Amino acid sequence: xxxxxxxxxxxxxxxxxxxxxxxxxxxxxxxxxxxxxxxxxxxxxxxxxxxxxxxxxxxxxxxxxxxxxxxxxxxxxxxxxxxxxxxxxxxxxxxxxxxxxxxxxxxxxxxxxxxxxxxxxxxxxxxxxxxxxxxxxxxxxxxxxxxxxxxxxxxxxxxxxxxxxxxxxxxxxxxxxxxxxxxxxxxxxxxxxxxxxxxxxxxxxxxxxxxxxxxxxxxxxxxxxxxxxxxxxxxxxxxxxxxxxxxxxxxxxxxxxxxxxxxxxxxxxxxxxxxxxxxxxxxxxxxxxxxxxxxxxxxxxxxxxxxxxxxxxxxxxxxxxxxxxxxxxxxxxxxxxxxxxxxxxxxxxxxxxxxxxxxxxxxxxxxxxxxxxxxxxxxxxxxxxxxxxxxxxxxxxxxxxxxxxxxxxxxxxxxxxxxxx
Length: 421
Prior knowledge:
Blueprint: E1 12-16, H1 21-37, E2 40-47, H2 54-67, E3 72-76, H3 86-105, E4 109-111, H4 116-128, H5 133-136, E5 142-144, E6 149-151, H6 159-168, H7 185-192, H8 200-225, E7 226-229, E8 233-237, H9 243-257, H10 266-273, E9 279-281, E10 284-288, E11 292-297, E12 306-307, E13 312-314, E14 321-325, E15 333-336, H11 337-342, H12 352-355, H13 359-362, E16 366-369, E17 379-380, E18 401-405
Helix pairs in contact: 1-6, 8-9, 9-10
């Protein structure tokens, strides 16, 4: 863990526990380390509901964690499960639930139990898929998430060592039959007992070094040339950087702005840039101006017109923006500016954060219809401890209507440079 820090005193950590031997070992190891270091740990068990006994298994896992002195909560994946791409949907749901738990408990770090065997499988699978250097670098030990930081402290531990650790301490675990399901690549690979290439660790180290260099270059390019709006709009100024780096940087900005599950690749960007003018990618609209490229969410697939709820928070209104309404005002309706504009409405007086954006970028933003000539635009959420001000439409304060943007994907895992003195 020391290699993944430093950690401030009293840090809160959340452990993702599936119930298997690897995650139970992670929980026990982390709890012991946190106790020695003065940190606080909790655990979360995601019940995907994909097997008839999943609820019982989740309860049993929670009991085992409580016996280790670890407070644990079960997070059920509710709703209709997809018939296809179920593993991908389950993974997205799992990280969505875990990040919500991080935010609810104030945990900055999420710990996952991926181990050396998982890493070897990942590298082999990506090699067979002809992945580039980033993919062949495997799973990073530290990854920025929207809600905090994902840590994988067991990537150098073989699974056998983790199970031995559990046996030596009398820790029991569950075996998930899905792990050996030949329908999925990993299950079929485990059943085949095919060993990874003898030099997979050397390949991994080389690929990791390459990925780290690429991330650092992208972070430097972002710091020098990217402009970010707190409402989820970005601009990238032209630079003399190589095309591959500029494309990777623009891909990172699109991933940050986009509500899509996966960001575009640099190769996607290069193909799009070869056709002059506007293009759409990853549910984003990208267009050039005289100095660079704008990136904004596409003004489609936005929530329909609804009555504004009283004193409520609308989480993920468009997959990115959470809206906070501090008070009820009769007759207010929540809709997108694209809908307002299509109906012939005027923009009215614009708050500074909105005025800084071009018209195309405003179309995907939410507004409140007061029944007046102009709508009310959201303000960026005020600093913690500062109450929203004003009770009227534009020009008279924000009326308690604020927006908080959360990027779906991190901009970079690189270092943005030293702090100014």
